[in-house]
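Sample intake — Putative PurR-regulated permease PerM
Collected from: Nonomuraea polychroma
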Amino acid sequence: MARRLGDAATGRSQAGAGDRPPAGWPAVPGLLRTIAATSTCLLVAAAAIALVGWVLVRLAPVTLAVTAALFLTALLHPVAAFLHRLHVPKGLGALAGVLLLVLVVAGPLTLVANQAIAQFDDLRRQLLAGLDQLRAFLTSGPLNQQQLNAAIEELIRALRGAAPDPVAGAMTTLQTLAAMAAALVLLFFFLRDGPGMWEWIVHRLPARRRERVDAAARAGWSTLVAYVRGTMAVAAVDAVGIGLALILLQVPFALGLAFLTFLFAFVPIVGAVVAGAVAVLVTLVSNGVTDALLVLGAVVIVQQLEGNLLEPVIIGKAVRLHPAVVLVAVTAGTLVGGIAGGVVAVPLTAVVYRAVTRGLAFPEPAAPDEPAAPDKAPPPPPKTPGDQQSRP
């Protein structure tokens, strides 16, 4: 009787516990739980990205050297691979690629420097004459001489205030030179041992993740290669087109402006505008309004040809991003890393997007088969009431 009363009391207590509303995390509605979990994941990811960005900015020379070496490796790897197919040792092929880069960069720089030295006096006279014409136009139009002098003095004070500290400037120059030297050394090793380095990294990962990571990284690398080579070709076309217009109009320092156009073409959207504006301003000061308008027309034609024909054909759809994404990436990269950040922002965005897309689309590897359970004796059959009654 007491046992029955205890069982009844236990049942009533369990029923009462089941009637209570859930407490704690289970009491939160499912939608709010999903929002909270998603927000937490986003905050953790944002914090991780911010931490990585802070470390990269603090190690700016190292980051610049590694990034430049990767970009140059994507550009010069075909040269080293071609020499290797000709049975040239990997070390010599990598060294040939580095020397080719030095010659290609040093040649135009030497030519531009010689032209600048030869035309410096003429450019100085034309610049002073253009400034006198601009001063005469402003004083005879919207401004008087006193207002113009005040504006010039304010501009000079602003430039002096913005001038960097000589010691800081020297340190920045030394860091840049050190980063350039490190980039050349890393370029040599990447050209010689790049595939072996990547295989070593992949084999340090868990076996089930190796194929996915390798496929994602190769997709990102192919995107970087396509971007660097395509941008190089587009930049060369821009420089040749605008340079020819400047040479035909006999604009001073035409080769230097063409080389500047080539360099700024690596900064999407913003670089083309800045290089074109510099070319137009130099032409306006040196040759006058008519030639400046002609140069402006040449810049517009070249930019339209680039945006509507060259980029879709040469770079391809694999690397193309929406203009809004490009603008946001360039702005963020410039704010974080200056000019270098603006240059690498778009290819980095394209590489990350392509790698993540390929990694998510990669099929999940099948789980390994579980080992078979060892053979066991079958359990004895259950006893029946008849068996119990048949016992003595």
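Post-analysis note: The two ends are 33 Å apart (CA to CA).
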